[in-house]
Design goal:
It is globular, with a radius of gyration of 19 Å. A 6-stranded mixed β-sheet has the order 1-3-2-4-11-5, with helices on both faces. The chain is α/β, with parallel strands linked by helices and 346 residues long. The chain folds into 2 domains: 224 residues, Periplasmic binding protein-like II (D-Maltodextrin-Binding Protein, domain 2); 95 residues, 3-Layer(aba) Sandwich (D-Maltodextrin-Binding Protein, domain 2). 38% of the residues lie in helices and 16% in strands. Helix 6 packs parallel to helix 7, helix 7 packs across helix 12 and helix 10 packs across helix 15.
């Protein structure tokens, strides 16, 4: 179900544009110029996607990209697997859960190296909370059941000796509805991205119990890096459309390199007001808190991928039994080619 309008990058098609391909030395135009991307959110973890759109980097790569925003990663995944979208913008963990079902998906560029998600309890139940074990019996809001936010909650519960059967999981999306769910007392705890979590902090509506905005917070929760938001597609689509995937990767990596040097004012000038929850200052304060999480160059590490697999295998029997090789679930070649094109030129 779409909660935001489709965002379209218009392109006046010209002659074939020169694009780097990791599969050959010669530059080639995209096989598929019109690309539909299903994104789990338009929150801050997905800022590289927004920047690439707003600064017309997709257009520069010869693409006509249409982005549909969904209420959580599981919904975006459904759009991809159902054929409504060509590419998904969502959690790397989806490639692993689908691998356990015999479906071959590959992440080809990362948007964040840390999840940039925050877990908190409502101030209304704050007196009942002393440790994660006290989450037992609580209603916990996730972006959507089955999404990466749900999986990370399961990991936190597992560390406290609990399971998802000890709590109630409720989908609240990643925008205003999530804020309202806490404020109205519909949920007792929440995991979400910014600017939702910064707004709740500013309103003094929550107490943070874990965060993955920073390297330290991520390592405290997972023991190392934990790649989250990225772009992924079916292995079949990637094989048939390598130049299209390269063009998408070029645009995202270019956006990430631009973001490394951008000021907060630069960011503000390139984000549509409708993505800011009606509060520009709040949005920028949120960005300052989580900007460390953004991937500097789009690459996923084997260490990070393995940690995600280990986390999932701990509470998903089908993943544990699947004998998944993480190297089969991502492909850094497109990022490597994009870096050759853009690094040092932004």
């Amino acid at each position: 179900m779409r909660f935001a309008a489709k965002y379209r990058v218009a392109l006046a098609f010209g002659a074939a544009l020169g694009l780097l391909s990791p599969h050959g030395a010669s530059a080639q135009a995209p096989e598929k110029r019109k690309v539909n991307i299903a994104t789990a959110s338009l929150g801050l973890p997905y800022l590289p996607l927004i920047i690439a759109q707003q600064r017309r980097y997709f257009t520069d790569e010869g693409l006509d990209v249409e982005i549909a925003a969904f209420a959580g990663g599981s919904k975006a995944l459904q759009s991809l697997m159902g054929g409504s979208s060509d590419v998904a913008s969502g959690a790397y963990s989806n490639t692993l859960t689908m691998a356990a079902k015999g479906q071959k998906l590959k992440n080809f560029v990362v948007q964040v190296r840390y999840p940039a998600l925050t877990i908190a309890v409502s101030k209304k139940v704050g007196d009942r909370y002393k440790s994660p074990a006290d989450l037992k019996g609580m209603k916990i809001g996730v972006s959507a059941p089955g999404s990466s936010t749900h999986m990370i909650v399961n990991h936190l519960l597992g560390k406290a000796g609990l399971t998802s059967n000890d709590v109630s999981i409720i989908g609240v999306g990643t925008s205003g509805a999530a804020v309202a769910a806490i404020e109205k007392g519909e949920i007792d705890a929440i995991i979400n991205s910014d600017p939702v979590m910064t707004k709740l902090e500013t309103d003094k509506a929550i107490t943070i119990i874990a965060e993955t905005r920073t390297r330290k917070g991520t390592e405290d929760l997972f023991g190392g890096p934990y790649p989250e938001a990225g772009l992924y597609a079916t292995a079949e689509f990637i094989e048939k459309n390598p130049n299209t995937i390269q063009a998408l990767t070029n645009a995202i990596v270019r956006a990430e390199l631009w973001m490394q040097k951008a000021t907060v004012d630069d960011i503000a000038a390139n984000v549509p007001p409708e993505h800011m929850l009606g509060d520009k200052e709040l949005y920028l304060a949120s960005y300052k808190k989580m900007r460390e999480a953004h991937a500097p160059d789009g690459q996923i590490t084997k260490e990070g991928a393995q940690i995600v697999l280990n986390v999932l295998a701990a509470f998903l029997p089908e993943v544990k039994a699947a004998n998944i090789k993480v190297e089969d679930t991502y492909d850094n070649r497109f990022v490597e080619a994009a870096l050759k094109k853009w690094q040092g030129k932004m």
